[in-house]
UniProtKB/TrEMBL annotation:
It comes from Streptomyces marispadix. The keyword Nucleotide-binding applies. This is ATP-binding cassette domain-containing protein. InterPro entries: AAA+_ATPase, ABC_transporter-like_ATP-bd, ABC_Transporter_VariousFunc, P-loop_NTPase. Residues 252-263 have a biased composition (Polar residues). Keywords: ATP-binding, Nucleotide-binding, Transport. Residues 1-233 form the ABC transporter domain. One of its GO terms (molecular function) is ATP binding. PANTHER family: ABC TRANSPORTER ATP-BINDING PROTEIN ALBC-RELATED. PROSITE patterns: ABC_TRANSPORTER_2. Pfam families: ABC_tran. Residues 13-24 have a biased composition (Gly residues).
Length: 294
Protein backbone atom coordinates (compact mmCIF):
# COMPACT_ATOMS: atom_id res chain seq x y z
CA UNK A 1 0.00 0.00 0.00
CA UNK A 2 1.29 3.47 -0.85
CA UNK A 3 0.56 7.04 0.07
CA UNK A 4 1.82 9.57 -2.45
CA UNK A 5 1.80 13.25 -1.59
CA UNK A 6 -1.14 12.75 0.75
CA UNK A 7 -2.58 15.77 2.52
CA UNK A 8 -5.62 16.29 4.70
CA UNK A 9 -7.21 19.50 5.78
CA UNK A 10 -10.50 20.08 7.50
CA UNK A 11 -12.85 22.71 6.15
CA UNK A 12 -13.03 23.90 2.58
CA UNK A 13 -11.78 27.44 2.66
CA UNK A 14 -8.13 27.04 3.42
CA UNK A 15 -8.13 28.52 6.91
CA UNK A 16 -7.87 32.04 8.16
CA UNK A 17 -8.15 34.49 5.25
CA UNK A 18 -7.44 31.71 2.84
CA UNK A 19 -3.91 31.23 4.20
CA UNK A 20 -4.41 27.54 4.81
CA UNK A 21 -3.50 28.09 8.46
CA UNK A 22 -5.53 28.23 11.61
CA UNK A 23 -8.87 26.75 12.56
CA UNK A 24 -11.32 25.76 9.89
CA UNK A 25 -9.03 24.99 7.05
CA UNK A 26 -5.38 24.36 7.93
CA UNK A 27 -3.58 21.39 6.54
CA UNK A 28 -3.15 18.77 9.25
CA UNK A 29 -1.06 16.56 6.98
CA UNK A 30 0.76 17.59 3.87
CA UNK A 31 2.91 15.82 1.29
CA UNK A 32 2.94 12.50 3.11
CA UNK A 33 4.68 9.70 1.21
CA UNK A 34 4.54 6.30 2.83
CA UNK A 35 4.97 2.75 1.71
CA UNK A 36 3.60 -0.07 3.84
CA UNK A 37 4.55 -3.66 3.22
CA UNK A 38 3.34 -7.07 4.30
CA UNK A 39 4.63 -8.41 7.63
CA UNK A 40 5.29 -4.93 8.91
CA UNK A 41 4.51 -3.50 12.33
CA UNK A 42 4.45 0.29 12.24
CA UNK A 43 4.19 2.70 15.15
CA UNK A 44 3.01 6.30 14.63
CA UNK A 45 3.71 8.88 17.30
CA UNK A 46 3.43 12.62 17.70
CA UNK A 47 2.18 15.34 20.00
CA UNK A 48 -1.51 15.81 20.80
CA UNK A 49 -3.27 17.25 17.80
CA UNK A 50 -0.37 16.53 15.44
CA UNK A 51 -2.56 14.40 13.16
CA UNK A 52 -2.09 10.79 14.26
CA UNK A 53 -5.80 9.89 14.21
CA UNK A 54 -6.15 11.78 10.95
CA UNK A 55 -3.44 9.65 9.36
CA UNK A 56 -4.92 6.44 10.75
CA UNK A 57 -8.38 7.28 9.39
CA UNK A 58 -6.84 7.88 5.97
CA UNK A 59 -4.95 4.58 6.14
CA UNK A 60 -8.13 2.76 7.19
CA UNK A 61 -10.12 4.33 4.36
CA UNK A 62 -12.58 5.89 6.80
CA UNK A 63 -11.61 9.30 5.49
CA UNK A 64 -10.35 10.46 2.10
CA UNK A 65 -7.27 12.59 1.46
CA UNK A 66 -7.75 16.24 0.45
CA UNK A 67 -4.65 15.87 -1.76
CA UNK A 68 -2.54 13.03 -3.11
CA UNK A 69 -3.35 9.36 -3.63
CA UNK A 70 -3.65 6.20 -1.60
CA UNK A 71 -3.29 2.99 -3.57
CA UNK A 72 -3.10 -0.75 -2.93
CA UNK A 73 -5.04 -0.87 0.33
CA UNK A 74 -5.58 -4.50 1.35
CA UNK A 75 -8.73 -5.61 3.21
CA UNK A 76 -8.61 -3.40 6.28
CA UNK A 77 -9.95 -3.38 9.82
CA UNK A 78 -9.86 -0.40 12.12
CA UNK A 79 -10.22 0.20 15.83
CA UNK A 80 -11.15 3.86 16.27
CA UNK A 81 -10.14 5.96 19.24
CA UNK A 82 -13.82 6.02 20.26
CA UNK A 83 -16.01 3.07 19.41
CA UNK A 84 -19.56 4.13 18.45
CA UNK A 85 -21.38 1.65 20.69
CA UNK A 86 -24.88 3.09 20.22
CA UNK A 87 -26.14 0.45 17.77
CA UNK A 88 -29.27 -1.47 18.85
CA UNK A 89 -27.55 -4.86 18.89
CA UNK A 90 -26.23 -7.29 21.47
CA UNK A 91 -22.48 -7.91 21.57
CA UNK A 92 -22.84 -11.33 19.96
CA UNK A 93 -25.32 -10.01 17.40
CA UNK A 94 -22.97 -7.22 16.41
CA UNK A 95 -19.86 -9.39 16.19
CA UNK A 96 -21.72 -12.08 14.24
CA UNK A 97 -22.90 -9.42 11.82
CA UNK A 98 -19.34 -8.15 11.47
CA UNK A 99 -18.14 -11.69 10.83
CA UNK A 100 -20.70 -11.99 8.03
CA UNK A 101 -19.51 -8.69 6.58
CA UNK A 102 -16.07 -10.27 6.48
CA UNK A 103 -17.44 -13.17 4.47
CA UNK A 104 -18.06 -15.82 7.14
CA UNK A 105 -21.20 -17.95 7.18
CA UNK A 106 -23.55 -17.23 10.06
CA UNK A 107 -22.54 -20.18 12.28
CA UNK A 108 -18.84 -19.63 11.64
CA UNK A 109 -19.23 -15.92 12.38
CA UNK A 110 -20.98 -16.65 15.69
CA UNK A 111 -18.33 -19.22 16.66
CA UNK A 112 -15.55 -16.81 15.79
CA UNK A 113 -17.27 -14.06 17.80
CA UNK A 114 -17.67 -16.31 20.84
CA UNK A 115 -14.00 -17.34 20.56
CA UNK A 116 -12.78 -13.74 20.65
CA UNK A 117 -15.13 -12.83 23.50
CA UNK A 118 -13.72 -15.74 25.49
CA UNK A 119 -10.14 -14.70 24.67
CA UNK A 120 -10.84 -11.24 26.03
CA UNK A 121 -12.70 -12.51 29.10
CA UNK A 122 -15.90 -10.90 27.82
CA UNK A 123 -18.04 -13.98 27.14
CA UNK A 124 -20.39 -13.03 30.00
CA UNK A 125 -21.44 -10.00 27.94
CA UNK A 126 -22.44 -11.89 24.80
CA UNK A 127 -26.14 -11.10 25.27
CA UNK A 128 -25.64 -7.57 26.58
CA UNK A 129 -26.80 -4.71 24.35
CA UNK A 130 -23.82 -2.70 23.07
CA UNK A 131 -25.24 0.47 24.58
CA UNK A 132 -25.11 -1.00 28.10
CA UNK A 133 -21.43 -1.97 28.03
CA UNK A 134 -18.81 -0.35 30.22
CA UNK A 135 -16.09 1.57 28.40
CA UNK A 136 -13.57 -1.25 28.78
CA UNK A 137 -16.00 -3.92 27.62
CA UNK A 138 -17.04 -1.95 24.57
CA UNK A 139 -13.35 -1.50 23.78
CA UNK A 140 -12.98 -5.28 23.83
CA UNK A 141 -15.81 -5.52 21.30
CA UNK A 142 -14.15 -2.86 19.13
CA UNK A 143 -10.91 -4.83 19.13
CA UNK A 144 -12.64 -8.19 18.59
CA UNK A 145 -14.51 -6.96 15.50
CA UNK A 146 -11.20 -5.87 13.95
CA UNK A 147 -9.25 -9.01 14.82
CA UNK A 148 -11.93 -11.43 13.65
CA UNK A 149 -11.58 -10.01 10.14
CA UNK A 150 -7.94 -11.26 9.99
CA UNK A 151 -7.31 -8.13 7.91
CA UNK A 152 -4.39 -7.51 5.58
CA UNK A 153 -4.11 -4.09 7.22
CA UNK A 154 -5.00 -3.60 10.88
CA UNK A 155 -5.19 0.00 12.07
CA UNK A 156 -5.26 0.54 15.83
CA UNK A 157 -5.89 3.98 17.28
CA UNK A 158 -5.23 3.78 21.05
CA UNK A 159 -6.85 0.34 20.96
CA UNK A 160 -5.29 -0.73 24.29
CA UNK A 161 -6.86 2.13 26.22
CA UNK A 162 -9.43 0.88 28.72
CA UNK A 163 -8.52 -2.80 28.30
CA UNK A 164 -7.63 -4.84 31.38
CA UNK A 165 -4.21 -6.49 31.68
CA UNK A 166 -5.27 -9.82 30.20
CA UNK A 167 -6.97 -8.17 27.23
CA UNK A 168 -3.92 -5.99 26.58
CA UNK A 169 -1.71 -9.06 26.50
CA UNK A 170 -4.16 -10.78 24.12
CA UNK A 171 -4.05 -7.76 21.84
CA UNK A 172 -0.22 -7.63 21.96
CA UNK A 173 -0.03 -11.27 20.89
CA UNK A 174 -2.76 -10.86 18.28
CA UNK A 175 -0.86 -7.97 16.70
CA UNK A 176 2.29 -10.09 16.50
CA UNK A 177 0.23 -12.95 15.10
CA UNK A 178 -1.27 -10.74 12.39
CA UNK A 179 2.20 -9.58 11.34
CA UNK A 180 3.54 -13.14 11.43
CA UNK A 181 0.68 -14.22 9.16
CA UNK A 182 1.65 -11.61 6.59
CA UNK A 183 -0.46 -8.64 7.65
CA UNK A 184 0.50 -5.03 8.22
CA UNK A 185 -0.34 -3.42 11.54
CA UNK A 186 -0.22 0.33 12.12
CA UNK A 187 -0.79 1.60 15.65
CA UNK A 188 -0.86 4.70 17.79
CA UNK A 189 -0.63 4.43 21.56
CA UNK A 190 0.10 6.99 24.25
CA UNK A 191 2.23 4.47 26.17
CA UNK A 192 5.76 4.56 24.72
CA UNK A 193 6.36 1.06 26.12
CA UNK A 194 3.50 -0.45 24.10
CA UNK A 195 4.93 -3.29 22.00
CA UNK A 196 8.35 -1.82 22.79
CA UNK A 197 11.09 -3.29 20.67
CA UNK A 198 8.59 -4.93 18.30
CA UNK A 199 7.82 -2.27 15.65
CA UNK A 200 9.76 -2.57 12.41
CA UNK A 201 9.53 1.15 11.92
CA UNK A 202 8.39 4.15 13.96
CA UNK A 203 7.20 7.40 12.40
CA UNK A 204 6.65 10.72 14.07
CA UNK A 205 4.18 13.30 12.78
CA UNK A 206 5.50 16.81 13.10
CA UNK A 207 4.65 19.98 11.21
CA UNK A 208 2.17 18.06 9.07
CA UNK A 209 4.88 15.70 7.80
CA UNK A 210 5.80 12.11 8.57
CA UNK A 211 9.35 11.49 9.76
CA UNK A 212 10.94 8.10 10.29
CA UNK A 213 12.26 7.92 13.85
CA UNK A 214 14.20 4.71 13.52
CA UNK A 215 13.85 1.07 12.73
CA UNK A 216 13.00 -1.73 15.14
CA UNK A 217 13.80 -0.09 18.51
CA UNK A 218 11.51 2.76 19.53
CA UNK A 219 13.16 5.53 21.48
CA UNK A 220 13.44 5.28 25.26
CA UNK A 221 11.18 7.71 27.01
CA UNK A 222 11.47 8.99 30.57
CA UNK A 223 12.81 5.83 32.17
CA UNK A 224 10.95 3.47 29.89
CA UNK A 225 13.23 0.72 28.59
CA UNK A 226 14.60 1.36 25.11
CA UNK A 227 13.87 -2.23 24.12
CA UNK A 228 10.90 -4.09 25.54
CA UNK A 229 10.71 -7.54 27.10
CA UNK A 230 12.30 -10.23 25.00
CA UNK A 231 11.43 -13.89 24.72
CA UNK A 232 14.47 -16.20 24.83
CA UNK A 233 13.91 -19.61 23.31
CA UNK A 234 16.40 -22.47 23.39
CA UNK A 235 15.67 -24.82 20.53
CA UNK A 236 17.24 -27.69 18.69
CA UNK A 237 16.53 -28.68 15.11
CA UNK A 238 16.55 -32.08 13.47
CA UNK A 239 20.13 -33.07 12.46
CA UNK A 240 21.31 -31.12 9.42
CA UNK A 241 18.15 -28.99 9.24
CA UNK A 242 18.60 -25.22 9.10
CA UNK A 243 16.51 -22.79 11.11
CA UNK A 244 13.23 -22.09 9.26
CA UNK A 245 13.55 -18.87 7.30
CA UNK A 246 11.34 -15.83 7.85
CA UNK A 247 10.57 -16.62 11.49
CA UNK A 248 8.15 -14.18 13.14
CA UNK A 249 9.72 -11.34 15.09
CA UNK A 250 13.02 -11.54 13.14
CA UNK A 251 14.77 -13.23 16.09
CA UNK A 252 18.45 -12.78 16.85
CA UNK A 253 20.10 -16.18 16.92
CA UNK A 254 23.10 -17.56 18.71
CA UNK A 255 24.63 -21.02 18.62
CA UNK A 256 25.80 -22.72 21.82
CA UNK A 257 28.65 -25.29 21.82
CA UNK A 258 26.22 -28.14 22.59
CA UNK A 259 24.26 -27.52 19.38
CA UNK A 260 21.39 -25.55 20.88
CA UNK A 261 20.17 -22.46 19.06
CA UNK A 262 19.16 -19.54 21.25
CA UNK A 263 16.59 -17.22 19.66
CA UNK A 264 15.71 -13.81 21.09
CA UNK A 265 12.79 -11.70 19.85
CA UNK A 266 10.31 -9.14 21.19
CA UNK A 267 8.06 -10.90 23.72
CA UNK A 268 4.75 -10.33 21.85
CA UNK A 269 6.13 -12.58 19.13
CA UNK A 270 6.67 -15.53 21.50
CA UNK A 271 3.60 -17.58 20.47
CA UNK A 272 4.09 -16.96 16.77
CA UNK A 273 7.80 -17.76 16.98
CA UNK A 274 7.20 -21.01 18.87
CA UNK A 275 4.61 -22.03 16.29
CA UNK A 276 7.10 -21.28 13.50
CA UNK A 277 9.78 -23.45 15.15
CA UNK A 278 7.39 -26.31 15.88
CA UNK A 279 6.12 -26.22 12.29
CA UNK A 280 9.75 -26.70 11.21
CA UNK A 281 9.96 -29.74 13.55
CA UNK A 282 12.29 -28.01 15.96
CA UNK A 283 12.44 -29.18 19.54
CA UNK A 284 11.90 -26.48 22.16
CA UNK A 285 14.16 -26.84 25.19
CA UNK A 286 13.19 -23.76 27.15
CA UNK A 287 11.25 -20.53 26.92
CA UNK A 288 11.83 -17.52 29.14
CA UNK A 289 10.79 -13.89 29.01
CA UNK A 290 13.57 -11.49 29.93
CA UNK A 291 12.94 -7.94 30.99
CA UNK A 292 14.05 -5.09 28.80
CA UNK A 293 17.68 -4.18 28.39
CA UNK A 294 18.41 -0.50 28.93
N1 LIG B 1 -13.31 16.16 11.92
C1 LIG B 1 -12.51 17.19 12.15
N2 LIG B 1 -12.89 18.45 11.81
C2 LIG B 1 -12.08 19.50 12.03
N3 LIG B 1 -10.85 19.41 12.57
C3 LIG B 1 -10.42 18.19 12.92
C4 LIG B 1 -11.22 17.02 12.74
N4 LIG B 1 -10.53 15.95 13.18
C5 LIG B 1 -9.34 16.42 13.63
N5 LIG B 1 -9.28 17.76 13.47
C6 LIG B 1 -8.14 18.62 13.81
O1 LIG B 1 -6.98 18.08 13.19
C7 LIG B 1 -5.86 18.15 14.06
C8 LIG B 1 -5.27 16.77 14.25
O2 LIG B 1 -6.20 15.99 14.96
P1 LIG B 1 -5.94 14.45 15.23
O3 LIG B 1 -7.09 13.95 16.04
O4 LIG B 1 -5.61 13.76 13.97
O5 LIG B 1 -4.62 14.53 16.14
P2 LIG B 1 -3.95 13.43 17.09
O6 LIG B 1 -2.48 13.53 16.88
O7 LIG B 1 -4.60 12.11 16.89
O8 LIG B 1 -4.32 14.03 18.52
P3 LIG B 1 -4.43 13.29 19.97
O9 LIG B 1 -3.06 12.83 20.35
O10 LIG B 1 -4.93 14.38 20.85
O11 LIG B 1 -5.42 12.16 19.82
C9 LIG B 1 -6.36 18.81 15.34
O12 LIG B 1 -6.07 20.18 15.27
C10 LIG B 1 -7.84 18.57 15.30
O13 LIG B 1 -8.53 19.59 15.98
Amino acid sequence: MRLDGVGRRYGRRGGVSGTGKGPGGGWVLRGVDLSLSERQLVRVQGDNGSGKSTLLRLLAGIDAPSAGRITGRPPTAYVPERFPAAMPLTVLGYLTRMGRVHGLRRDAAADEARGWLECFGADAYARTPLAELSKGSSQKVAVAQALMARPGLLVLDEAWTGLDLNARAVLDRSVAERVAEGGTVVFVDHDPARLAGAPDVTYRIEGGGLHEVDGRVPPGHGGVPAAGPQVRIEAEGPPGVALPSGLPGSPRTEQTPDGTTVLTAPAPYSDALLRGLLAGHWHIRSVAVEEASR
